[in-house]
Specification:
The complex is a heterodimer of chains A (about 110) and B (about 110). Chain A is mainly β and about 110 residues long. Chain A is about 0% helix and about 55% strand. Chain A is built from no helices and eleven strands. Chain A has strands spanning about 5, 10-15, 20-25, 30-40, 40-50, 55, 65-70, 75-80, 85-95, 100-105, 105-110. In chain A, strands 2, 4, 5, 6, 9, 10 and 11 form a seven-stranded mixed β-sheet that branches. A four-stranded antiparallel β-sheet of chain A has the order 1-3-8-7, with no helix packed on it. In chain A, strand 5 (about 40-50) and strand 6 form a beta hairpin. The N and C termini of chain A lie far apart (about 30 Å). The N and C termini of chain B lie far apart (about 35 Å). In chain B, the strands form two sheets. In chain B, strands 2, 4, 5, 9, 10 and 11 form a six-stranded mixed β-sheet that branches. In chain B, strands 1-3-8-7-6 form a five-stranded antiparallel β-sheet, with no helix packed on it. Chain B is mainly β and about 110 residues long. Chain B has strands at about 5, 10-15, 20-25, 30-35, 45-50, 50-55, 60-65, 70-75, 85-90, 100, 105-110. Classes of the chains: A mainly beta (about 110), B mainly beta (about 110).
Chain lengths: ~110, ~110
């Protein structure tokens, strides 16, 4: 099994629909992150969490929300999807502030 | 100006060539990461370094903190090395923030 698992891997949806992307990790890490990748823009931070009770906004959190259901699970929600949220989304984990990064395989979201 | 700049943006090489990808940054950092992303695939961490040099197989990463510069070298390149290589820095004093470069697309032809 992968260290960091994202579901779904691909999703096509329509404007206005609610979408949830899920992430689970088996590394036992405290820190989890959601990033968005767009061509030519690199990876940008949406939300991050240092533990179950700690949730923080990243640089592009508008239109997104998250839930840290357990140390191993971190979900990203789009309450009302819009076309410019079409992107590749990555979940990542790390152990402490300076540990190695572990990424999921990515979730490709298309909003029509 | 981006805090992390990579060069070149695109690189094409012949199998067996020595490859160098550069990363320059403008902020104080606590660590620098090199990541690899294959087309359509996930992202894998290659190195994390805060000083000096690290080697793993045919890959070598170096960092010069004073010059705010890091290089990723690939010796005896192979078509399976074709991927996007991404530099990311952990900004000092901000224990969550990673700032990413836009990546270098490497294509190694047989």
């Amino acid at each position: 099994d992968a260290d960091v698992t994202q579901t779904p891997r691909n999703r096509i949806t329509k404007t206005g629909k609610r979408i949830m992307l899920e992430c689970s990790q088996t590394k036992g890490h405290d820190r989890m992150y959601w990033y968005r990748q767009d061509p030519g823009l690199g990876l940008r931070l949406i939300y991050y969490s240092f533990d179950v009770k700690d949730i923080n906004k990243g640089e592009i959190s508008d239109g997104y929300s998250v839930s840290r259901q357990a140390q191993a699970k971190f979900s990203l929600s789009l309450e009302s999807a819009i076309p410019n949220q079409t992107a590749l989304y990555f979940c990542a984990t790390t152990n402490g502030g300076f540990g190695e990064l572990f990424f999921g395989e990515g979730s490709r979201l298309t909003v029509l | 100006k981006n805090e992390v700049e990579q060069s070149p943006q695109n690189l094409t090489a012949q199998e067996g060539e020595f490859i160098t990808i550069n990363c320059s940054y403008s902020v104080g950092i606590s660590a620098l990461h090199w990541l690899q992303q294959h087309p359509g695939g996930g992202i894998v961490s290659l190195f994390m370094l805060s000083s000096g040099k690290k080697k793993h197989g045919r890959l070598i990463a170096t960092i010069n903190i004073q010059e705010k510069h890091s290089s990723l070298h690939i010796t005896a390149s192979h078509p399976r090395d074709s991927a996007v290589y991404i530099c990311a820095v952990s900004v000092r004093g901000s224990n969550y923030k990673l700032t990413f470069g836009k990546g270098t697309l490497l294509t190694v032809n047989p």
